[in-house]
Amino acid sequence: MSCFGSVVRLVSQAQLSCIRSKPLLQKICSAVSVATRRQHVATQMSAQEEKTKIPVSSHNEWDLLEEVIVGRAENACVPEFTTEVKANTYEKYWPFYQKYGGKPFPKKHIQKAVEEVEEMCSILQQEGVVVRRPDVVEWEKAFETPDFKSRGMYAAMPRDILIVIGNEIIEAPMAWRSRFFEYRAYRSLIKEYFTEGAKWTAAPKPLMSDELYDMNYPMHSVQDRHELAKKGQFVTTEFEPCFDAADFIRAGRDIFVQRSQVTNLMGIKWMERHLGPEYNLHQLTFKDPNPMHIDATFNIIGPGLVVANPDRPCNEMHLFKKAGWTVVEAPTPTRSDDLPLWMSSKWLSMNVLMLDEERVMCDKNEIPTMKMFEELGITTIPVDIQHANSLGGAFHCWTTDVRRRGELKSYF
């Protein structure tokens, strides 16, 4: 009857007598049914197409990864040995910066790093992830602002400069002078995302004049730095907002951040006001003499699941335990000293990239870390980027997830 009723709406009363026969009625009903199914499929396809039109959408660190930006090692330069660089690097590498600051990193090392990152991109694509890359830039070129002179550094670590919150991509203002113009390598990509419908925000660019830095910041010993960190004293002052995006880590409506050598309280306050009441920004502190970027200290890998650095314990860990989160201590890194770590520590072993809740890209040389993930029921995708590590980051640092399939939720 429902089929016949549909037919009645399409024909005149005079024509009804012509279609009383059962065969003809069945044909018409069948035609209407096919048309209905086609309309349903078309509606579903339209909804799916509409969803795929969203170029930027990511709420956390673990939903299914669909598109990612992977950095470039090409033309990477050693940053000039300024106060803010000295405060963030290990003393044993200071002679390296004094000798090569403002010049390209060793050519053979960069060639190896480029090859490793290309392999990483290939593996990501094999896992079904769309990979995007920044532009190639000549970072050795000198530049000058009214407040300082410098040379560039690189576009190796998208995580440092870009953070995606929902459908918005935010450019961090940065804190190192050598990284002042780093955003230029990503502009063509971000303009494309914006044209396709994404929100695009660039945080206020700091002047990076001498007032932003404590030019007398004491750097004599690790103990000195521990004491300074306890007091909340860092090489960056509160002269103006500054932050690196890698000091923030996302868990839906809750975002965690640390005050560090490159992220000041004004930068945290700017982000808090910008995001508004829809998000809760939590400031964390760690027993860390040299805090810079949170993801090798505190890496959220799933809903209510954290990998924590046992050498840099979180002073607010009780909040996570109270919320019912699981905190897993990362195993001691096994990396040898054969290759330098000019701008980072061996704890890059925990700087991993989640492709979803059940797959993780991690260092194939860090067997204890791989075992930890396997015990958590997470499949490891092992990749070797040890030369790329020397430039200051592992898988999480070398990437910014542009699109993950998931919705905004509360987990904390």
From TrEMBL:
Q: Which InterPro entries does the record match to this protein?
A: AmidinoTrfase
What Enzyme Commission number does this protein have?
2.1.4.1
Where in the cell does this protein reside?
Answer: Mitochondrion inner membrane
Q: In which pathway does it act?
A: Amine and polyamine biosynthesis; creatine biosynthesis; creatine from L-arginine and glycine: step 1/2
What enzyme category does the UniProt record give? Answer: transferase
Keywords assigned by UniProt?
Answer: Membrane, Mitochondrion, Mitochondrion inner membrane, Transferase
The UniProt entry, under CDD domains, shows: amidinotransferase_AGAT-like (cd21136)
Task: Tell me which domain of life the UniProt entry assigns to the organism this sequence originates from.
Answer: Eukaryota
Give the residues annotated as coiled coil: none
As given in the record, the signal peptide range reads: none
Q: Which reactions are catalysed by this chain? A: L-arginine + glycine = guanidinoacetate + L-ornithine
The UniProt entry, under SUPFAM superfamilies, shows:
Pentein
Q: How does it assemble?
A: Homodimer.
Q: What does this protein do?
A: Catalyzes the biosynthesis of guanidinoacetate, the immediate precursor of creatine. Creatine plays a vital role in energy metabolism in muscle tissues. May play a role in embryonic and central nervous system development.
Q: Which family does it belong to?
A: Belongs to the amidinotransferase family.
Report what the protein is called. Answer: Glycine amidinotransferase
